[in-house]
Amino acid sequence: MKKEYVLDADGMKRADEGTIEVLGIGQDVLMERAALAVAACVKKYQPVNVLCVCGNGNNGGDAVATARILCMQGINVDVYMCGDSKKYKSSVVKQLDIFRKIGGRTVNDPLFSEYDIIVDGIFGIGMERRVEGDYAKVIDVVNEAKAAGIKVLSIDIPSGIHTDTGAVLSSAVKADETVSFAYYKPGHLLYPGALYCGKVTVEEIGISHRYFYEEELNYFTVSPEEEIKLPERRRDGNKGTFGRVLVIAGNESMYGACYLSALAVLRMGAGLVDIYTNEINRVTLQNMIPEAIVHTYTNEGINKEVLCKLIDSSTCVVIGPGISVDNNAMELVSTVMEYCDKTIIADADALNCIANQKDLLYNQKRFANREMIITPHPGEFSRLTGQSVTGLKENYVKSVMDFAKEYDVIVVGKDAGTVVSDGKNVYFNQTGNDGMATAGSGDVLSGIIGSLCAQGLNAYEAAWKGVFIHGKAGDTAIKDTNTRSLIARDIANTLTKVIN
Length: 500
Hints:
Layout: E1 3-5, H1 9-21, H2 27-43, E2 49-54, H3 58-72, E3 76-81, H4 90-101, E4 105-106, E5 117-121, H5 133-147, E6 151-155, E7 177-181, H6 186-189, H7 193-197, E8 199-203, E9 219-222, E10 244-248, H8 255-267, E11 272-278, H9 282-288, E12 293-297, H10 304-313, E13 316-319, H11 327-339, E14 343-346, H12 349-356, H13 359-362, E15 372-374, H14 378-385, H15 389-393, H16 396-407, E16 410-413, E17 419-421, E18 426-428, H17 441-454, H18 459-477, H19 488-498
Parallel strand pairs: 2-3, 2-5, 3-4, 5-6, 6-7, 7-8, 9-18, 10-11, 10-13, 11-12, 13-14, 14-15, 15-16
Antiparallel strand pairs: 1-9, 16-17, 17-18
């Protein structure tokens, strides 16, 4: 399994400067390598006419250099310069001079419909201001060309996408493909930026962090094509060897949440699963999932002694799917938070209970060796933090990291682009699809993560690997169905196909 590093704008600037100043690899060399990579990507589309739309910064220099390489290879290419020529960086001036010397053509008012492919080199990484005026008009024309069937390829990141957050800076290029250099950027993996990038290709051009970063990078992703390494299974093991998960789930009529979470626990490889649920669900669950051991409480209240014994006999605890936020639910959550010394995976209504009684989270710091994973979607995260969903998403990575650090928990920030953080490290997920936005999908995820914890993975590893596997199961499941018809059971039952 190969981890791929992700660098934000500041980190990429440091890596760029370090490569130039510490290693002595000049900017001209890096720009030439970048242009060669982009030109090679352009040629895959076998274009006849290419338009390179260039800004006045280094991204524009990359685009002009790309135009020169394509021109020298016999492809008809024009350069369209945006912005004030008085503000061109020296790299742009130099590349334009070379381009003109070989007979390259610059155009002032191109007819975009005449080209097979448009190369977007208007803005690069680090762009933070709103896109306005003539730049916004150019981006609109590029997007109109794409809508008409013309291919668009962006250099490093689509112009108008915030490198660190994936936000649209009022207007952004919608690319078919983005060629990035050295590392992924958060804006490639977070939404809505990921929608604008199209396919992301990361090319090695000689930039490296290794010689001037004191420690390893802490942002990473894993390609969906990779296989995740899981704990080896002993041939002489028994059901106790592979862990026992307690799933506390399902109030009245919510037996499905218990079923889906427990099913995922077993499909993921844990040896035993106990369910603690409302008595009304007992018979249904015994018929649906006879492999599980069902224990119950009544509407009159929970039996703390029974619950604590179940916690004692478990390897880890999953709590929250479908428990509601009534008095019983609050007592379930508070008992687990105050008594349990095992790894806790808190999902769904457990998070809503915690949001109503925030002091419960501070109990986490009382247990020196207890690990805790929370799995909020944006609405639940909003209730936990007291911030609006919009406010959280202005910098989702920072929001997740800050919360994880403050409360000493691992946060699985569920979203179209899920991020997982322990307060220091951040995993950006690339697996999954829109069909997984379906009832019970999160219950399956909680079961997967709980199962991995029970089998010996530390909480952070179990969380990010669980997210990856959950998404990959969803991607595999739609091969036999489609994103409209996908249901949570499909995801759980497809785990058998994605576990190596």
